[in-house]
Write a structure and sequence with these properties.
Layout: E1 2-7, E2 18-21, E3 32-37, E4 40-50, E5 65-66, H1 75-88, H2 92-99, H3 102-105, E6 112-119, H4 125-131, H5 137-149, E7 151-153, H6 154-160, H7 163-171, E8 175-182, H8 201-212, E9 217-222, H9 228-241, E10 245-249, H10 256-267, E11 271-274, H11 280-291, E12 297-300, E13 312-318, H12 335-346, E14 349-354, H13 359-366, E15 371-375, E16 386-391, H14 392-397, H15 406-417, E17 421-425, E18 435-437, E19 454-456, E20 461-463, E21 470-472, E22 485-487, H16 492-502, E23 508-511, H17 521-530, E24 536-539, E25 552-557, H18 571-583, E26 594-599, H19 605-611, H20 615-629, E27 636-644, H21 647-667, E28 672-685, E29 688-697, H22 702-715, E30 720-726
Parallel strand pairs: 9-14, 9-15, 10-12, 10-13, 11-12, 13-14, 16-26, 17-24, 17-25, 23-24, 25-26
Antiparallel strand pairs: 1-2, 1-4, 3-4, 3-5, 6-7, 6-8, 18-22, 19-20, 20-21, 27-29, 27-30, 28-29
Helix pairs in contact: 1-2, 1-12, 6-7, 8-9, 18-19, 21-22
The structure holds adenosine-5'-diphosphate (ADP) and zinc ion (2 copies).
C-alpha cells in the first residue's frame, strides 16, 4: 500500500503531494503521520491510499509513524481543502493548517493526564473493609468512598482523607493507581443560569421558517434586542435532537464566552469553544472533544467554521455583516464561502443573523436567493432607544472644547444618579493619537511602516499599530527640533481621564487593545461590567457588538463621523451598522434607553437614517448609488497587491503585471469595468512598499479571478509578494 501525503511546509512553491510506503494498516485517509523529508522528519496528512505507486518502490521511503489512532482530518474537510486550493489559489498545506490547531501541528501539546484510584481487580472490598484495623479511619474512609463511587481522582482522595492512607491500601494490593486522560476545560468557572423563556410568535415563526424553507440560507433580519439569540438556541436544540451537529459563529472572540455561557446552560458539555485566545492545551482538548464526537456544538469566531464536526445540520453566522468574517491575511477566505461548501456537503442549513445586514446579503434576500425572516420589534415591544444628535459644531461655538457635549454630560449625570450603567463608544477606525508638531506639522511615523505612531500615556511610549514596534516618546520634533508637540485626537485613556474628573466617584472600565492583551482579558472586563461592578464602560469596536447588559440605559457615541469620511464605498453602510449596533446596547431591559450621538455633520443622510433606525431607506440609498457607480454588489472589486522591500522592483513588477492585466482586458472588454494601478494609500508596512492594481469585474467571474491569481503567482518570489484580493474589507 502507498500513501499520498501533504507535508506540512510553509513555502508556497511546494504545493506537492509526496508518496510514501504504508508500513501497517493503522493508517487511514486523513491520518496525521510523521514522514522522512530530506534529512528531516516532518508531519503530514495522508490524503489518499492506493495499491500502486507512480514511482519504483525502491525510490520511496516508508512512513515513520502515525500520530493518532483515528484520522484527524475528515473526508469532508479534505474535499474542502481541494475547494479552497482552487478558489483561493492556496496550497493544500496552508488549507490544512486552518483545520488543525497550530499547537497540534508542532506536536508541542501533550494530552493531559491525571492519576485515578480504583479497587484492584479480584479484590473483595467489603471483606477488606471489615479486616481493616479500627484505628485506620482514613483508610476506611477511602475504601468506603471507592465502594460507593468505584473510582476517584488521587488528588481528591489525598485531600479528603490522606495520601498515606491511599498509599497503604495500594501497597496492600487493595487499590490500584492508574493514569487517565482528562480534558482541560476552558471557562470552567462560568456560572450558567438558564433563562426559561416562552418564545414570542415572531420567534416561533422565524424558527419554522428556517425549518421549512427549501433554501439553504436564511437571513434573520431582527432589530437589536429582538431575541435572535433565543431563535439560534432553539434551532440548535432541534438540530441536536435530530442527531446532527451545529456551528455558531460570532464576530469577536470577546463574545464567545457570553455565548458559551448560554450554550452550556442549555446543552452542557456538548458545547465546545474554539478560538485563538485559548491556551494551547485547552485548544487541543476542545478540538479532540469535537473530533471524536463528544462535543456536538461549536461556538467560536471566524476560524471555528473549520471545526472538525461531522454530520452538520446547522451553521449560524451572527452579525453576518461584520468585517471580521473575511480573513485579511493569507489564506484570504470568506467565511460564508466555507459555510456554503460545508452546508452543501452535509445537507445543513445556514442562518445569517443581523440587525443591519450587509447590503450584498440583503439584496440577495430581497431577490429571493435567500429565505428572509424578520423580527421587527424588540422583545416585549420595548421601544428602540431614542437617539439624540448632539451637534458638536454648535458645542464648539458655545465654547465647549471637550469631547463631551452638554447633552451627553447631562444624560450621564441622570444615568449615574439612577444607578444605571453607561457605555461610551469611540470609533477605532480613523481614531489616532498621533504626535504632531505644531510648528511644522510633521507627524511622527514608524520607521518601517508609513503610518503615524500612537501615543500611550501609560508608559510614555509611541506604538506602531501595524507592526507593533515601540518607541520612546520624543521630546522634540525630528524635523524642525521644535518642542511644541501635540497629541492629536483622543483615545480611550484620555476619555477615561476626563470622565473621572467629571464624575469622581464613578467606577470606569476601559476596554481596548491595551487592557485586553492578557488571557481572557475581554472576558474579565465584560464580566465585571455585567456584574455591575462598574458604572461606565469606555471602549471601541469590540464593545459595540452583541452584548446584552440589562442595566445599560445610556450609550454615548463620541465621534460618529470618523468612519463616514473614509474613501471607501462602504463607509456609509458601515457607519449605519456601527451606530445601530452600539445604540442597540441601550435600554435592553425594563428601563428605556437613550443614545447620544455626537457629530460634526448632523445633516448627513446616513446619520439621519441611523437615528430613525431606517434600515430600508439606507439600503435603497446605498443600492441606487452602487448601481449607478458599478460598485459591489453590482461588481466584484479585485485588488492585486504587490509588496516588496525593494521599491524599484515593486514598481517594475506592478508595471509588467498591469500590462498583462490590460492585455487580458483587451480580450474580455465587457468584463472589465475599471482598471488602474497606483501606490497603496498606506505606502509601506513592515518595511515593505505596497503597490496595487485595482479592477472591477462582473460578479462571480471565477475564471478571470483564477487567471489574475496565476499572474500574481508568476511574479511572486523571495523578494516580492503579489496576491489577489476579492472584495477586500478595506483598500488601504
Ligand atoms: P438580539 O440578539 O436580537 O439582540 P437577544 O437574543 O439578546 O436579542 O434578546 C434580548 C433580550 O430579550 C435578552 O435578554 C433575552 O434573554 C430576552 N428574550 C429573548 N427572547 C425572549 C422571550 N421570548 N421572552 C422574554 N425574553 C426574551
Ligand atoms: Zn516640526
Ligand atoms: Zn510599524
Amino acid at each position: 500500500m502507498f500513501a499520498d501525503v501533504i507535508v506540512d511546509i510553509t513555502v508556497s512553491e511546494v504545493d506537492k503531494i509526496f508518496e510514501y510506503i504504508v508500513p501497517n494498516d493503522d493508517i487511514f485517509v486523513g491520518s496525521r503521520v510523521v514522514v522522512p523529508f530530506g534529512s528531516k522528519k516532518l508531519c503530514g496528512i495522508v490524503i489518499n491510499l492506493k495499491e500502486k505507486s507512480n514511482y519504483p518502490p525502491n525510490r520511496l521511503k516508508p512512513i515513520i509513524s502515525v500520530l493518532e489512532d483515528s484520522p484527524a482530518v475528515t473526508k469532508e474537510l479534505l474535499s474542502l481543502m481541494r475547494y479552497m486550493q482552487k478558489k483561493y489559489f492556496i496550497t493544500a498545506a496552508s488549507a490544512l493548517r486552518l483545520f488543525l490547531p497550530s499547537e497540534m501541528r508542532l506536536g508541542k501539546v501533550k494530552e493531559l493526564t491525571a492519576n485515578f484510584v480504583k479497587i484492584s481487580d479480584g479484590i473483595d472490598a467489603i471483606k477488606e473493609l471489615e479486616n481493616l484495623k479500627k484505628s485506620a479511619k482514613q483508610q476506611k474512609g477511602v475504601l468506603e468512598f471507592l465502594i460507593k463511587n468505584k473510582t476517584a481522582k488521587l488528588s481528591f482522595l489525598a485531600n479528603e482523607f490522606s495520601r498515606s492512607a491511599v498509599n497503604a491500601l495500594e501497597k496492600a494490593g487493595v487499590l490500584t493507581v492508574y493514569s487517565e486522560k482528562i480534558s482541560r476545560n476552558p471557562y470552567e468557572n462560568l456560572n450558567f443560569n438558564n433563562k426559561n423563556v416562552t418564545l414570542t410568535t415572531a420567534q416561533n415563526d422565524a424558527i419554522s421558517s428556517v425549518e421549512n424553507t427549501d433554501k439553504t440560507i436564511t437571513l434573520l433580519h431582527g432589530v437589536t434586542g429582538s431575541g435572535k439569540t433565543e431563535v439560534y438556541l432553539n434551532l440548535i436544540s432541534k438540530t441536536i435532537a435530530g442527531c446532527k451537529t451545529a456551528i455558531m459563529l460570532v464576530p469577536e472572540i470577546a463574545l464567545t464566552p457570553q455565548m458559551l455561557k448560554q450554550l452550556r446552560a442549555r446543552f452542557g458539555d456538548t458545547a465546545a469553544i474554539l478560538h485563538s485566545g485559548l491556551s494551547s492545551g485547552e485548544k487541543f482538548d476542545e478540538w479532540w472533544r469535537i473530533r471524536n464526537g463528544e462535543a456536538k456544538i461549536v461556538i467560536g469566531a471566524r476560524s471555528a467554521i473549520f471545526a472538525p464536526l461531522e454530520n452538520i445540520g446547522l451553521i449560524i453566522i451572527d452579525e453576518e455583516h461584520d468585517s471580521s468574517y473575511v480573513s485579511e491575511q493569507s489564506p484570504r477566505y470568506k467565511t460564508l464561502d466555507i459555510a456554503i461548501f460545508r452546508a452543501n456537503s452535509n445537507g445543513a442549513k445556514i442562518v445569517l443573523g443581523s440587525a443591519t445586514p450587509s447590503v450584498e446579503t440583503y439584496l440577495k434576500a430581497k431577490n429571493g436567493e435567500y429565505n428572509l425572516v424578520k423580527l421587527p420589534e424588540r422583545i416585549n415591544k420595548r421601544p428602540m432607544p431614542e437617539i439624540i444628535i448632539a451637534d458638536m459644531k454648535r458645542e464648539v461655538r458655545r465654547g465647549n472644547n471637550t469631547m463631551f457635549s452638554s447633552h451627553l454630560r447631562e444624560e450621564l449625570e441622570t444615568c449615574l444618579k439612577n444607578g444605571n450603567q453607561a457605555i461610551l463608544f469611540l470609533n477605532q477606525r480613523g481614531y489616532s493619537k498621533s504626535v504632531i508638531c505644531t510648528e511644522c506639522g510633521h507627524v511622527h511615523k514608524c520607521v518601517d511602516c508609513d503610518v503615524s505612531l500612537t501615543y500611550h500615556a501609560e508608559d510614555d511610549s509611541l506604538l506602531c499599530h501595524y507592526c507593533g514596534a515601540k518607541y520612546k516618546m520624543i521630546s522634540a520634533c525630528v524635523e524642525c527640533g521644535s518642542k511644541y508637540l501635540k497629541h492629536n485626537g483622543t483615545g480611550t485613556e484620555k476619555i477615561v481621564y476626563e470622565l473621572q474628573k467629571m464624575f469622581p466617584t464613578a467606577k470606569i472600565l476601559r476596554m481596548d487593545r491595551d487592557t485586553t492583551a492578557k488571557k481572557e482579558g475581554h472576558f474579565k472586563i465584560l464580566n465585571e461590567f455585567s456584574e455591575k461592578k462598574a458604572d461606565i464602560l469606555v471602549g471601541m469596536q469590540m464593545i459595540a457588538k452583541g452584548h446584552d447588559f440589562p442595566s445599560v440605559t445610556l450609550v454615548g457615541i463620541l465621534d460618529a463621523d470618523m468612519s463616514l469620511h473614509f474613501s471607501d464605498f462602504r463607509s456609509g453602510e458601515r457607519t449605519f451598522q456601527l451606530i445601530t449596533q452600539v445604540a442597540g446596547r441601550s435600554g435592553r431591559a425594563d428601563e428605556k434607553g437613550k443614545v447620544v450621538l455626537q457629530t460634526y455633520t448632523p445633516e448627513n443622510f446616513i446619520l439621519r437614517q441611523a437615528v430613525k433606525y431606517e434600515y430600508d431607506k439606507m439600503f435603497e440609498h446605498e443600492i441606487s448609488v452602487r448601481k449607478a457607480t458599478g460598485f459591489p454588489p453590482f461588481s466584484d472589486i479585485i485588488r492585486i497587491m504587490i509588496t516588496s522591500e525593494n521599491e524599484e522592483h515593486a514598481v517594475a513588477v506592478t508595471k509588467s503585471l498591469f500590462n498583462e492585466v490590460s492585455a487580458l482586458r483587451d480580450r474580455f472588454p465587457t468584463e472589465f469595468k475599471f482598471l488602474a494601478c497606483m501606490k497603496s494609500p498606506i505606502k509601506r508596512i513592515l518595511n515593505k512598499f505596497r503597490y496595487q492594481i485595482i479592477t472591477r469585474f462582473s460578479v462571480g467571474n471565477d475564471e478571470l479571478i483564477y487567471r489574475l491569481n496565476e499572474l500574481a503567482q508568476k511574479y511572486t518570489d523571495k523578494t516580492l509578494t503579489a496576491y489577489v484580493e476579492v472584495n477586500p474589507n478595506n483598500l488601504s
